[in-house]
């Protein structure tokens, strides 16, 4: 997994996120059908671009998250990316991320 992700470096203020898996069973062991499981709106930051450019100075404006951070995502949006490890990742701009979870 690490080799496939290291080949992707998001540009500017874009962030590559792996969405958290939805729970498919309850605490009591009941298996839930796919249709009843809602979208998970949390994810883990996998890769971060250098940041947006400041138009006056040309310097990068640092991104507010780093690799490994947990973030709250919007229900819709982002660009889906499937890598060699057959996992689905989503590419968001920094401004699209709703919150950083601690």
TrEMBL record:
> Which UniProt keywords are present, listed alphabetically?
Chaperone, Stress response
Q: Which Gene3D superfamilies match?
A: GroES chaperonin
Q: Which GO terms describe its molecular function?
A: ATP binding; metal ion binding; protein folding chaperone; protein-folding chaperone binding; unfolded protein binding
The record's listing under SMART domains reads: Cpn10 (SM00883)
Whether Chaperone counts among this entry's keywords is yes
**Cellular-component GO terms for this entry:** mitochondrial matrix
Has keyword Chaperone? yes
> What's this protein's family per the entry?
Belongs to the GroES chaperonin family.
Name of protein: 10 kDa heat shock protein, mitochondrial
Question: What lineage does the source organism belong to?
Answer: Eukaryota, Metazoa, Ecdysozoa, Arthropoda, Hexapoda
């Amino acid at each position: 997994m690490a080799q496939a992700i290291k080949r992707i470096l998001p540009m500017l203020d874009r962030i590559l996120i792996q969405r958290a898996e939805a729970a498919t069973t309850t605490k009591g062991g009941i298996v839930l059908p796919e249709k009843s499981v809602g979208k998970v709106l949390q994810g883990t930051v996998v890769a971060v671009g250098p940041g947006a450019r400041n138009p006056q100075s040309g310097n990068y404006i640092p991104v507010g998250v780093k690799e490994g951070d947990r973030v709250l995502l919007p229900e819709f949006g982002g660009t889906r990316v499937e890598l060699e490890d057959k996992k689905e990742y989503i590419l968001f701009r920094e401004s699209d991320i709703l919150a950083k979870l601690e």
